[in-house]
Hints:
The structure holds two protein chains of two kinds.
Chain A: E1 8-13, E2 19-25, E3 28-35, H1 41-56, E4 65-69, H2 75-92, E5 95-99, H3 101-107, E6 116-121, E7 126-135, E8 138-149, H4 153-156, E9 162-165, H5 172-179, E10 185-186, H6 196-208, H7 231-234
Parallel strand pairs in A: 1-4, 4-5, 6-9, 9-10
Antiparallel strand pairs in A: 1-2, 2-3, 6-7, 7-8
Helix pairs in contact in A: 1-2, 3-6
Chain B: E1 3-7, E2 12-19, E3 22-30, H1 42-63, E4 73-79, H2 83-100, E5 104-108, H3 109-115, E6 128-133, E7 138-145, E8 148-154, H4 160-170, H5 177-185, H6 209-220, H7 224-257, E9 261-265, H8 272-285, E10 289-290, H9 302-313
Parallel strand pairs in B: 1-4, 4-5, 6-9, 9-10
Antiparallel strand pairs in B: 1-2, 2-3, 6-7, 7-8
The site of adenosine-5'-triphosphate has 24 residues of chain B, from α4 and α5.
Amino acid sequence: METTGAVNILAIETATQICSVAVAAGELLLAEETLNIGRIHAEKLAALVDQLLAELGKRPDEIDVLAVSGGPGSFTGLRIGLAFAKGFALAGGQRLILVPTLMALALRPGIVRRPVCPVLRSRRGELYAAVYEWRGSELMTAVAERVLPEEELGLFLPRGALLTGDVDSLPPEIRSQVESREDVELAAPWLRTPSAAAVAQVGFWLCRRGEFADLDTAEPRYLQEFVARKLEGVEKHVQ
Amino acid sequence: MIVLGIETSCDETSAALYSEQGLLAHAVHYQAVHEEYGGVVPEFASRAHMRTLIPTIRYVIRRAGLSFRDLGAVAVTYGPGLVGSLIVGLNVAKGLAVALRLPLVGINHIEGHIFANFLEEPFPELPGVCLVVSGGHTQLVLVRRLGDYQVLGRTRDDAAGEAFDKVARILGLGYPGGPAIEAAAAAGQENAVSFPRGLMENSYDFSFSGLKTAVLYYHRALSPQEREKRLADVAASFQKAVVDVLVAKALRACQEFGVRSLSVVGGVARNRRLRRALEELAAETGIPVFVPKPEFCTDNAAMIARAGFFHLLHGVRSDLRLAPAPSLNLDSRYLPTD
Ligand SMILES: Nc1ncnc2c1ncn2[C@@H]1O[C@H](COP(=O)(O)OP(=O)(O)OP(=O)(O)O)[C@@H](O)[C@H]1O
């Protein structure tokens, strides 16, 4: 297949316990490496990218765009992926794309005629969720990403939805409630996990639309405000 | 060889360039966000590093009139420190190293502080004693030569800078507490209140929690009007107590090990009262004393680039798998015999 002239995308997915990197030429996946062995991203990510480029015989400066899974997800995981991508792109002058993690997750089960609802569990036991719909061969946002209490998943799921993502770690009552709905379908288990190939694909769409992030100031989509106690209240702690 | 240094272990975002020509450029971005909270909020620190590190690196490259192609290596702090903060600097460094195919060298932050006295000549002669006094650490280190250390003692509770920060809070002064106490102490009498010194004879370890508690009880016993009136005296007396302990232990170590220099590094080394006491000590004992310029006392990447430069010349490289080490200890990289 002809790949010269296509945009070379280095994709990084570290939003969950999965650590995945991929290189694509346009919409053609050239290589992907995925580890699902726990929180090893801090150690493995850079070496994985280095090895993948070496396998492909590509020099770092042959990469045109960095597509990073930008959240929501694990704060630490997101920081590892984005910080690495920033350093890489700063040196090489590549453009940076922050791919919505949930959109990349929604892409994996393939083109379906149902609304696709990906969910990821947050550390606080809530869900990150959104709804996407296929228009032709491109995914569109139907309901924007949000933080959802687990109990509200049933209400949030649109009629006829395909549910994907962290389905297995839902509390049993919520899971059976969702499964008992005849209109809702579950994505195949092997397609419910994040992957850098999906990040590369969404990255390709965003690149075509010119939706780049500002390298200097880009931050993960935390979706959660972080609140700390101000000084007035602090004196009580001093003992 | 031009080394880019990166430091994000706590709440300073910093980058610097060091080469055979010395320090080429450096910048420190201080995160003011924590002031309102009376201490470093780790989540805010991580977020701020993510927003400011890239512009900080760009700035030093531009300032030195260089491009990324000119770099020869990347040195980065990998511990000790806040894990969420370390992760940002470490991964930006790895991204640069992979993209530019440069060697990466991980630097122990405490060792970085020791190198702050090696940015400009004259350098301390070694073997020397180095007192590391910062917000997170208080350690007395025997530096046999660069890369070869023996920790003689450390704090058993609060670090010296932490004691300044906590006492400042007790006294209703702002954060960071070190500069606030120093300013308040300027108009006070050092011998107004006799606070305990916590000298712990026969040990090079430190303890500042007894001193902190003594200040707390003293302060509590005062009426609001007295508190205001005695503020300068209390601050000055507390500061003097800390300085006395630091100087006494450092001097004892210098004498016991017969070293050729004393260095004092870390944020608390900015303290002018401490600096004056060290000058007096040098004058009285003849031991040459070295204290970095104030900007190189607090966390900075110049010292990290400098330490990286040294290790790289000795062939030290880190693997791309280098992980953040939040509670890293100061270990020797070179054994005395090599
Ligand atoms: N003038 C001063 N007098 C006393 N203490 C000071 C002064 N200026 C700064 N400090 C103290 O120095 C500390 C900050 O120092 P530094 O930036 O070296 O350390 P850190 O980041 O807190 O910790 P570490 O270097 O151990 O990781 C704070 O505790 C601050 O109160």
